[in-house]
Design a protein that fits this description.
alpha/beta; Urease, subunit C, domain 1; TIM Barrel; 2 domains; eight-stranded parallel β-sheet; 15 helices; 17 strands; 23% strand; globular
Length: 429
């Protein structure tokens, strides 16, 4: 495909107008002011359009789409124990497949090209992602609140099976990560054991850390003053590539560990606001050189995958946290939403409009009232644009969504099957 005479957000997150971008198979092969001599096939008229890299959702639980709106106005622990865990206890393969597919449809609609997903029923999640054409880093979340011996944990066998069967699946669109759910749901043997597996297989560790003050302080009480980040570091969890979600209550040495170990931090602005968990100190982390990416968390705690909404929240609440309206520029917010997330997923040739990079692209409309007047287009993308302005989503050079139509997902069937699966679970509760 050739995007012609289109405005682009270039690899430096600067605006360039009247550009040509040629996509061959799954790669961005040409970027220039002049129309290329090579035939790239179908041409896309760039009038009133912006071409930019797709979004990388750095923390998600896609099957929890089934629980959208199910547990509201509760603090995190009550939300988990009284609503989420009982519902999850009734999940089955069919429900997880359709819940994941619904999230893939919503993600693609809102320009998310890849997600870092932490859950279980991994084969069903992999199948949904594969069928949708999306990308995902999927991890079997490991919890062990009862202290079962590590070698006897069924979740570890499931994680190992996932690594063997699915890492690099769907032409590399599926990457298998490992996952410790959290400090408060595991013990040290489990953390150390999975850390060793992660290192052995050269994978990425995905973990919740310091999401709430209660979690943070109880960890310190259990581990002689060690915070979750310090405890995980002592256990060797960050001796491999890692992605730490939330990090709202990090303090002191935590930030040095995150930087020195090269951990990506996935901040989840709207979920953390909605559950009153707090605000991550993104300006401090970014200032220290920590790779900060953006996640939605699940739609049961968000309740939307409208990623532009998340980007705006990320940029604005950071100003409240720092009491400084100059922190987090629009360029920094867009980099966090795209390139930083791709790097956190280990997708090194993704997240930029750059020759030789994967063609994971989205097109944003500018012929809508909320995008005018245009004093600074980058500012408008972050503070004025809406997910409904996304006209096209391309993953690995394939158009998966364009102007209201999906090319890989039967959206009516997906909605029907999701509602049916949800109703069956509710009947059992």
């Amino acid at each position: 495909m050739l995007f012609k005479e289109i405005t682009i957000l270039n690899e430096n997150f600067e605006i360039e107008e009247n550009m040509y971008v040629g996509v061959k198979e799954d790669i961005v092969e040409y970027i220039g002011k002049e129309k290329p001599a090579k035939d790239f096939g179908q041409e896309y008229d760039g009038k009133n359009r912006i071409l930019m890299p797709g979004f990388y959702n750095a923390h998600a639980h896609s099957p929890m789409a089934l629980m959208r709106g199910y547990g509201e106005n509760l603090v995190l622990q009550d939300w988990l124990n009284t609503r989420i865990f009982p519902f999850e206890d009734k999940l089955n393969s069919n429900a997880v497949y359709w819940g994941t597919m619904l999230c893939m449809a919503e993600s693609i609609r809102f320009g998310i090209v890849s997600s870092s997903d932490m859950y279980y029923f991994i084969p069903d999640m992999v199948q949904a992602v594969t069928d949708s054409g999306a990308k995902s880093n999927i991890s079997r979340s490991v919890a062990n609140p009862m202290g079962v011996p590590f070698v006897k944990l069924p979740s570890i066998n499931e994680a190992l099976d996932s690594i063997r069967l699915y890492n690099g699946y769907a032409e590399g669109r599926v990457i298998i990560d490992t996952s410790i759910h959290a400090e408060y749901t595991t013990n040290e043997e489990t953390v150390r054991g999975l850390a060793a597996i992660t290192k052995e297989h050269d994978l990425i560790m995905h973990v919740h850390a310091s999401e709430t003050k209660l979690e943070h302080e109880e960890c310190k009480a259990r581990h002689d003053g060690l915070t979750p980040i310090q405890y995980f570091n002592r256990c060797g969890l960050f001796d491999s590539k890692a992605l730490a979600a939330h990090c709202v209550w990090c303090e002191g040495e935590d930030f040095d560990i995150l930087r020195d170990k090269g951990v990506t931090v996935a901040v989840n602005p709207i979920s953390n606001l909605k559950l009153a968990s707090g605000i991550s100190d993104a300006p401090k982390m970014m200032g220290m050189g920590i790779n900060v990416a953006i996640g939605t968390d699940s739609v049961s705690s968000n309740n939307s995958l409208n990623f532009l909404e998340e980007v705006k929240a990320f940029a604005t609440i950071a100003k409240i946290k720092a009491k400084d309206p100059t922190v987090i520029t629009p360029k920094q917010a867009l980099r966090a939403a795209t390139r930083n997330g791709a790097l956190g997923q280990g997708r090194k040739n993704c997240g930029l409009i750059k020759e030789g990079f994967q063609a994971d692209l989205i097109v944003l409309r500018t012929d809508v009232p909320n995008m005018h007047p245009i004093h600074n287009l980058t500012n408008n993308i972050v503070y004025a644009a809406s997910g409904s302005d996304i006209a096209l989503t391309m993953i690995d050079g394939k158009i998966l969504y364009q102007d209201g139509e999906y090319t890989t997902i039967d959206i009516e069937k997906t909605i029907f099957e999701t509602e049916k699966a949800t109703a069956e679970i509710l009947r059992q509760l």
